[in-house]
Amino acid sequence: MSARSETFRGAPGTSEAFRGDLDLDGDTLREECGVFGIYGHPDASAIVALGLHALQHRGQEAAGIVSFDGRVFHSERRMGLVGDSFSDLATIERLKGETAIGHVRYSTTGETILRNVQPLFAELETGGLSVAHNGNLTNGLLLRRQLVRDGAICQSTSDTEAILHLVARSRHVRIVDRVMDALRQIEGAYALVMMTNKKLIGARDPLGIRPLVLGELDGRYILASETCALDIIGARFVRDVENGEMVVISDEGIESIRFARAQPLRPCIFEYIYFARPDSIVNGKNVYSVRKNIGVELAKESPAEADIIIPVPDSGVPAALGYAQQTGLPYELGIIRNHYVGRTFIQPTQSVRELGVRMKHSANRAAVEGKRIVLVDDSLVRGTTSVKIVRMMREAGAREVHFRIASPPITHPDFYGIDTPEKEKLLAATHDLESMRRYIGADSLAFLSIGGLYRAMGEEGRDAACPQYTDHCFTGDYPTPLTDLAVASPRRMAILAEAD
Question: Are the C-beta atoms of residues 310 and 332 closer than 8 Å to each other?
Answer without folding.
Answer: yes
